[in-house]
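Reading a protein record of the kind used here takes little practice once its layout is understood. An example of such a record is reproduced below.
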Amino acid sequence: MRPRRDAVLGSTGCQPVAFGGPAECLLARSAIANANAILGSGSRQAAANYRLAACAPQKQKRQRCCYVVAFALLLSNFSMLAQNEVVNLALPTNNDALFRGGGPEFYQYIERDYKGVKSTPWEGGQYGFVRDPIETAQGIVYTRFHEGIDIRALERDAHGEPLDEVRAIADGKVVHTNLVPGYSNYGKYIVIEHRWDGSNYYSLYGHLSSIAVKPNQDVRKGDRIAVIGYTGAGLNQARAHLHLELDLMLSHQFEAWYNAFVKNDPNHNGIYNGINLTGLDIARLYLALRKNPSLTIPQFLQDEEMFYKVTIPKSSHFELVKNYPWMLPGTIGVKTSSWEVSFARSGLPLKVQPSDRQVVQPELTYVKKSAIDYSDLTRGEISGRRDHAHLTESGRKLIRLLTYPD
């Protein structure tokens, strides 16, 4: 968000020299303008009442001016809070075919070679398990998860280079920019932090050709932040696109966890590494918000299917319930020896419940029954079939992130 004029300190950041003089009048006028903007045309009379403060005797003027400033600031805070609660998203490029049926006009196709047959299915640009098909007794299963959506480019120059402008999908703050393509499969990418429902969420923009913003920069919805490109792994000019995610963060202790469990692969992106950001279905969210603009992310995720549950030891480092308190509803006073975390098939955490179960390490306590090996149905966190499901070594390590360093 862009910085605003401070009603108390003014544009210079200094206290007014004295109340009752020109400085006080300017201060009162600034507060009145803010009140008018916040209260709206239906409450002009309430704001007009503040004008009396500028015309009263000096003693009353000083007191009333303080009231004006305090009240205007209070209203401003309420206004910002209400604004932050609304998930008001814009598409990041001019490609709006998602709202006209999507398909090949919106999603960038992938290149597939399945059993010697080459194809370019646009479905591979969607969110979810949409890549790397295998044949099973239950039919074709897509085993590779795609964390975001791939939006195809619309504009190119005479040499075929993409020209599409990339814009922030919502108000927020730039928290990370990766300028070195080789430091990530995303290539050059940006992460913007947004705050809704009292929690932080992160939009990620990948495969960029150039970046126009810097970390700690406030942005508004629709601000230009980059240009589409094809930096990153496995891309070429023909498949230039924007990879877009909307993520939850697993832990602020990620860097220490990464250094402990991942060897011979330096982490150049701190806590904004893709492993630490778990995405939701942003295309479905866009469509859901068109039907219900007041929809919140917790409400949206209520429709997500719970696929497995893991019970983890109680820990003061368990951040999910601190960062996303909506995951833990109505559990005040419940005895807690451990936490049972419910996950979508993608590994997205959906819900947390207190448990009286005593555990010293993560334990798989539920999984949806399937005859297909769970290693093909999840991102490798679980293996086995039916009643023989278990956390894999990589699954245990990833779950450890939730309570690291415990």
Q: What stands out?
A: The mean pLDDT is 84.
